[in-house]
Design a protein that fits this description.
By secondary structure, the chain is of the alpha/beta class. About 45% of the residues lie in helices and about 10% in strands. The strands form 5 sheets. It has an 8-stranded mixed sheet, with helices on both faces.
């Protein structure tokens, strides 16, 4: 009886089974991405899926169908699984360009492991069941029949269905062009159509040839003058211009360092005593935010040295490491500085071996330059980073050569597991063993290590001659593991899901020359380079340098965009964080002061238009940069 039944299971079976399974997995993917399923939007997923499976049905010989379709199921399941992890970590739907960064996964394997949730494995449940069933059939001596050929009518019908799927997908993709918000676009057109839409958009980004910097600056100024929320301080000479001229420059980019620990106490313990002191003595920017794209830490390095927006389509180190990029290192080298960069990881991680020459650094010091004290997955600790860096600073001092050293920390990297003998905080019971607790221990150590850097600078006669800039590269607390209300309750602060998450510190300190001043103007990582250049007496205007950020010491009102971690069209100004929906009108706004939603944000439409135009100019500019010989 079983034999007769199985003999009637012929060729179309894999086509129907896999089609249904993949459609169910697309529904599951929507659930993970959007915290629910908008059933009226499943037609877009069905259209693209029909085209894909029908195409495989038409081109695959009958005898190979079951192998091909199950292989397709496995590959797509792995794609959905990895895309879900990507979304949970970055908060954005990945496009095909994320494949460029697959080689980086092993470098952050601890972070990847910490991101995985048991529910993510649901994409493989059917494969496990099928494998168990196949093994059971083999043991029982039951063999499934091989595929059989079918008639021409079947193939014509499949071709017709494929064409319907293609036409429907094309219509969805066409309609998506008007949606700047990538999340809204992905939700409306479906995962596969979103990939095609991203590819078409990338193809439409044509190089316009070399852009005239003078004309570009005119375009930027025209935008700024048209937007009332960008306002420079009206003075004949820029405030603090050249006040730190001739000093050495040390920029410390602190891994995953958010702003909320600054001046915060827990159980009577000060979380960041060293940074608190530097903020109290120097310039402190409490309303400062990350703007990184797909390159994360490497993008932060890129922005702080160039004042150019990341494209958010690809890590800037990977996509533009072969270009000659205007930068702070090059400007300072023209003034006799040595410009070097230090990172305890392998320089090939995130293609930094391409980025650093593109930015014009004289030398880079990576993993082999440091003694591995096995602090975390990256190896050497921040203390070791600073020890080696100060050795080279002393060499520059002895050679009577000013220097710009960029130091990239890694001790507070996700998942924030640091050695037990470096965990000095006495945490409340409800925080111990949580990611929040681990993060606070790592941040506290990072602060301590900065203190050791300062001690070494003083011991070697460098402290009074050096400008120290410290900022966070991006957020640390993962949103899926830390609900805002939980963080707020445990720390006794108001932790807003987006504003607090993306708020990073910026501190600029130089002994004897930086009076205590809290700069409340909103700022982003694009603004670091113009601000530092002003302090060192480098006039970007005289250099005809195309900066897309602003000198925060001479900016009264500021507006800047953020994309990748927020949808394109999102922006910060002195008043709000705005995030668009399908358009400006259905977006949302939150007050930076009260951290409460704002219902009427219509007055900020010029800021939305301004940010989109400015990011477009930045993309054109970086695309037009010449290739390095």
């Amino acid at each position: 009886m079983k034999s007769n039944l199985l003999s009637r299971l012929h060729w179309p079976q894999p086509f129907f089974i896999i089609s249904i399974i993949l459609f169910l997995k697309l529904i599951l993917l929507r659930y993970f991405f959007f915290d629910g399923v908008a059933w009226d939007r499943l037609a877009s997923d069905a259209a693209s899926l029909l085209f894909i499976v029908c195409l495989f049905e038409l081109v695959t010989p009958a005898r190979w169908k079951k192998y091909v379709f199950w292989t397709l199921n496995i590959v797509v399941s792995m794609l959905f699984f990895s895309s879900t992890l990507y979304f949970e970590h970055f908060g954005t739907v990945p496009t095909y360009t994320a494949l460029y960064e697959l080689k980086q996964v092993m470098g952050v394997k601890d972070s990847v492991k910490a991101t995985i949730q048991i529910s993510n494995y649901a994409f493989f449940l059917d494969i496990v069941v099928a494998a168990v069933g196949w093994i059971a059939f083999r043991i029982a001596g039951i063999r499934l029949p091989a595929g059989r050929s079918v008639g021409r009518a079947w193939n014509l019908g499949i071709a017709a269905v494929a064409m319907v799927g293609l036409v429907a997908s094309t219509m969805y993709i066409r309609d998506a062009k008007s949606i700047e918000n990538e999340l809204a676009q992905a939700e409306n057109v479906g995962f596969f159509n979103f990939q095609v839409s991203a590819a078409l958009k990338a193809k439409q980004t044509v190089s316009l040839g070399k852009i005239d910097p003078v004309q570009l600056n005119k375009d930027i100024k025209q935008l700024q003058s048209a937007d009332p929320d960008v306002k420079m301080i009206a003075e004949k000479a820029p405030a603090a211009f050249g006040s730190m001229k001739g000093k050495n420059l040390v920029i410390v980019q602190m891994e995953a360092f958010q702003n909320f620990p600054i001046h915060l106490q827990l159980n009577g313990q000060v979380l960041t005593p060293v940074l608190n002191g530097m903020a109290d003595e120097g310039y402190y920017f409490p309303h400062f935010f990350q703007q990184i794209g797909q390159g994360n830490t490497a993008d932060a390095e890129f922005m702080s040295n160039t004042s150019i927006y990341p494209t958010a389509k690809i890590a800037m180190s990977t996509g533009y490491g072969d270009r000659a990029i205007p930068s702070l290192p090059k400007l300072l080298e023209q003034r006799g500085y040595e410009a070097d960069t230090f990172h305890v990881n392998d320089v090939k991680f995130w293609d930094r071996d391409k980025l650093y020459p593109a930015l014009g650094f004289n030398q880079y010091f990576d993993k082999p330059s440091f003694q591995n004290d096995h602090f975390n997955g990256f190896g050497a600790s921040d203390e070791e980073l600073y020890r080696v860096a100060v050795q080279h600073m002393v060499q520059m001092k002895n050679a009577k050569k000013p220097f710009y050293f960029q130091l990239i920390t890694a001790s507070s990297h996700h998942p924030f597991k640091i050695p037990a003998d470096k965990q000095w905080l006495n945490l409340p019971a409800n925080i111990q063993g949580t990611q929040l607790g681990d993060y606070l221990q790592a941040v506290h150590y990072t602060d301590y290590a900065v203190g050791k850097l300062i001690e070494q600078l003083k011991a070697n006669g460098l402290y009074d001659k050096t400008v120290i800039v410290l900022y966070g590269d991006h957020f640390g607390l993962q949103p899926q593991d830390n609900k805002p209300e939980d963080v707020s309750a445990k720390l006794g602060i108001t932790y807003q899901e987006r504003i607090s998450r993306f708020n990073i510190p910026l501190i600029i300190h130089a002994a004897g020359t930086s009076p205590h001043k809290v700069i409340k103007t909103v700022g982003g990582q694009l603004d670091i380079m113009p601000t530092v250049a002003n302090l060192l007496g480098v006039s970007l205007k005289d250099e005809k340098y195309s900066a897309f950020g602003h000198d925060l010491l001479n900016t009264e009102l500021n507006v800047f965009g953020m994309r990748y971690y927020l949808p394109t069209g999102s922006f910060f100004n002195n008043d709000i964080l705005f995030v668009p929906g399908k358009s400006f009108e259905d977006g949302t706004a939150v007050s930076l002061d009260t951290l409460q939603p704002i219902s009427d944000f219509s007055a900020y439409k010029p800021d939305y238009d301004y940010v989109l135009k400015l990011m477009g100019l930045s993309d054109q500019f970086v695309q037009s940069l010449p290739y390095r010989k």
